[in-house]
UniProtKB/TrEMBL annotation:
<dbReference type="InterPro" id="IPR058163">
    <property type="entry name" value="LysR-type_TF_proteobact-type"/>
</dbReference>
<dbReference type="GO" id="GO:0043565">
    <property type="term" value="F:sequence-specific DNA binding"/>
</dbReference>
<dbReference type="InterPro" id="IPR005119">
    <property type="entry name" value="LysR_subst-bd"/>
</dbReference>
<protein>
    <submittedName>
        <fullName>LysR family transcriptional regulator</fullName>
    </submittedName>
</protein>
<dbReference type="InterPro" id="IPR036390">
    <property type="entry name" value="WH_DNA-bd_sf"/>
</dbReference>
<dbReference type="Pfam" id="PF03466">
    <property type="entry name" value="LysR_substrate"/>
</dbReference>
<comment type="similarity">
    <text>Belongs to the LysR transcriptional regulatory family.</text>
</comment>
<keyword id="KW-0805">Transcription regulation</keyword>
<dbReference type="InterPro" id="IPR000847">
    <property type="entry name" value="LysR_HTH_N"/>
</dbReference>
<dbReference type="InterPro" id="IPR036388">
    <property type="entry name" value="WH-like_DNA-bd_sf"/>
</dbReference>
<dbReference type="GO" id="GO:0003700">
    <property type="term" value="F:DNA-binding transcription factor activity"/>
</dbReference>
<dbReference type="Pfam" id="PF00126">
    <property type="entry name" value="HTH_1"/>
</dbReference>
<keyword id="KW-0804">Transcription</keyword>
<keyword id="KW-0238">DNA-binding</keyword>
<dbReference type="GO" id="GO:0006351">
    <property type="term" value="P:DNA-templated transcription"/>
</dbReference>
<feature type="domain" description="HTH lysR-type">
    <location>
        <begin position="1"/>
        <end position="59"/>
    </location>
</feature>
Length: 308
């Protein structure tokens, strides 16, 4: 038995909480995953997982073993990355996680050029609107558009760009419910809010009267920016969007900018990656590539002046 490979399989089962999902992620059969975990348990002489028909539970020994597996696998990855740097030829798999809005609006446009520029790197990209937890699930790099992320000993946080926020609604919604004159008018509208982006139920504005924080009323709160945008486009409410999402919608006439005389507290586009002793060369290349791509391809990212 290849103990290191079995450790990697076991770790993926823990991270995905499923034998079948781990098998799909690793490109092998569920029976193969189950056998490798069973062989690993026999090798260490302890039950690492408790299997039932409904759930997968990690034993106390399994939790301790998983923590050590993470450290060992991380050290192996760092060693391989270090050798790659000496070779000067980046190759292998880079696992990237991004929030859905940024992933679909910009990342999807940048990835083809990266793949052409670095033909020996394979990308695995997963989109979700969760917190930075994906880095604990084996991802090398994550992108989030958010107001603030606290760096730590375990995480490096790199700000790539300012991401302005704007308030929008469809012309149909405005015709039915009226135009907004001041931020306080939001209290009489259905605001579509997030549930996992900091103070998602409070929108902060800056204007000639200073800063003001508005408690929004919402019949829908969701952790998916795409869902909120879809409901807004169905004329069901007012939505706060990032500038790179809003520009195209406004240009197409599908939504209108509201409260244009007020600045919505902006967010930032952050790259987050584990604070290893050795840099992940592929992640570093991707971050630098994306910074250059944004500068070259996203006009007026900070203000979208021509439209907003």
């Amino acid at each position: 038995m290849d103990v290191l490979s079995a450790m990697a399989v076991f770790a993926r089962v823990i991270e995905l909480q499923s034998f079948s999902l781990a098998a799909s992620d690793l490109g092998v059969s569920s029976s193969s995953v189950s056998k490798q975990v069973a062989h690993l348990e026999k090798h260490v002489g302890a039950a690492l997982l408790e299997r039932t028909t409904r759930r997968l539970k990690v034993t106390e020994a399994g939790e301790a073993y998983y923590e050590k597996c993470q450290q060992i696998l991380s050290q192996v990855e760092e060693a391989e990355a270090l050798v790659t740097q000496f070779q000067g030829n980046p190759h292998g798999v880079l696992k990237v996680n991004s929030d859905i809005a940024f992933g679909t609006a910009l990342l999807a446009r940048a990835v083809p050029e990266f793949l052409v520029q670095y033909p020996d790197i394979q990308l695995e990209v997963m989109l979700d609107d969760g917190a930075v937890g994906p880095l604990q699930q084996g991802f090398d790099l994550a992108f989030r558009v958010i107001d603030f992320i606290q760096p730590s000993e375990a995480l490096v946080v790199h700000e790539l760009a300012c991401a302005p926020q704007v308030i929008c609604a469809t012309p149909e919604y405005i015709a039915r419910h009226g135009q907004l004159q001041v931020p306080a008018d939001l209290e009489n509208h259905n605001c579509l809010g997030g549930v996992s982006l900091g103070k998602a139920n409070r929108w902060v504005f800056n204007g000639i009267d200073g800063s003001q924080e508005i408690q929004i009323a919402s019949r829908l709160r969701a952790n998916s920016s795409l869902m909120l945008q879809a409901v807004m486009l169905a004329h069901q409410g007012v939505c706060r969007l990032s500038g790179f999402e809003a520009c195209q919608l406004i240009e197409e006439g599908r939504v209108r900018l509201l409260l244009a005389d007020y600045e919505v507290k902006p967010c930032s586009l952050f790259a987050i990656y584990p604070a290893h002793k050795y840099k992940n060369m592929k992640a570093d290349l991707f971050i630098k590539f994306l910074e250059g791509w944004i500068t070259a391809n996203v006009k007026n990212l900070e203000k979208c002046d021509q439209i907003l």
